[in-house]
Description:
The protein is mainly alpha-helical and about 350 residues long. The chain has two domains: about 45-140, Tyrosine recombinase, N-terminal domain (DNA polymerase, domain 1, Orthogonal Bundle), CATH 1.10.150; about 155-330, Orthogonal Bundle (hpI Integrase, Chain A), CATH 1.10.443. It contains 15 helices and three strands. It has helices at about 55-65, 70-85, 95-110, 115-130, 140, 155-165, 170-180, 185-190, 220-235, 250-260, 265-280, 290-300, 305-315, 320, 330-345; strands at about 195-200, 205, 215-220. The protein has a three-stranded antiparallel beta sheet. A hairpin with an 8-residue loop joins strand 2 and strand 3. The longest helix is centred in the first third of the chain and has 18 residues, at about 70-85. The radius of gyration is 24 Å and the shape is globular.
Amino acid sequence: MAEVIGVFHFGRVMKKPTASSPAGQASGEPLPFNHRPNVGRRGRDPLDYDHSYPSMKRYAELLALRYDQPRTRQAYYRQLRLIAEHGGGDPAELSEAQVRDYFLHVKTVKQWRPKTVRQAAACARLFFVDLLENEDWRVFSQIRAQDDQRLPAVMTRAQVVRLLEHIRLRRYRIPIKLIYCCGLRLSECLNLTIHDIRGDEGKLWVREGKGGRDRMVPIAAVMVEDLRRYWRFHRHPLLLFPHVGRGSKEPEQMARRMRQAKTPMPVSSLQRLILSARQELNYPEATVHTLRHSFATHLIEAGAGIHTVKELLGHRQIETTMVYLHLTHRSEQDAQKLVDQLTRQLPR
């Protein structure tokens, strides 16, 4: 079982208590491996929400029966809440015409992306057809939302360096750097605990990623050293990126609040920071997720195989990873070289 002490060694179990042990480990025993915080998008289960209407409580119960992942249940429940807010009352009392008007609104006025429209339609079908048994409704067979062929935004390596240099506060720079260096999603990064970094092995465990899947990715030694130095500042017994909270900006006060934090850094903190940095650096398009796209593209440009990148990103389908081939200069250069070779072999 992984263990962390004052110098942030991983892969070792303490033999006896030390003064540098994290709080709550007076016995020198490591924290339980399955002791994980509710962070990022996890939050409360919809079953525990304060439901506006009995029908929404029944829907939360159906979601708990149907789906194992909390994020899926939260996303579906949120879509129903948006429908209820748009209708101005109990969603169970909406007519098929009102539901049809709602989807016209989100497609033509709010201009939701196709993936979001499909999710909203699946949520509504589950509620109105499966739960309320309106089997004669035809509105859901009328909704079409086909994905466009937009390529994701990608920063150059120089732009990534400039972005990191622009972020002066270490508590923001370290998680952003880790997202790029390991290709993590934002919630995956902020979910990390001291048990997920295997510094001696150069590995990082991503627990309960998208779809509830675990994966292991390599982590550079210099990145591990950055995490060690950052952990020495706050010394939280579990979290790598604890929430700093509000209060004094004095380092000792901040470290004390972080050491006692019950939750990690909010995802909105990094999202707002990247948006602000993008505007100041005059980058045309950049989000936290752009760093993940950039990681994959730069790996392929450096010669990594597409299947390797697929596993590192935690994609279920290879088609999802194939998009990065369209973003690399290397593939264009290889194609040009191959065409030149074929042409030289032809008689003149």
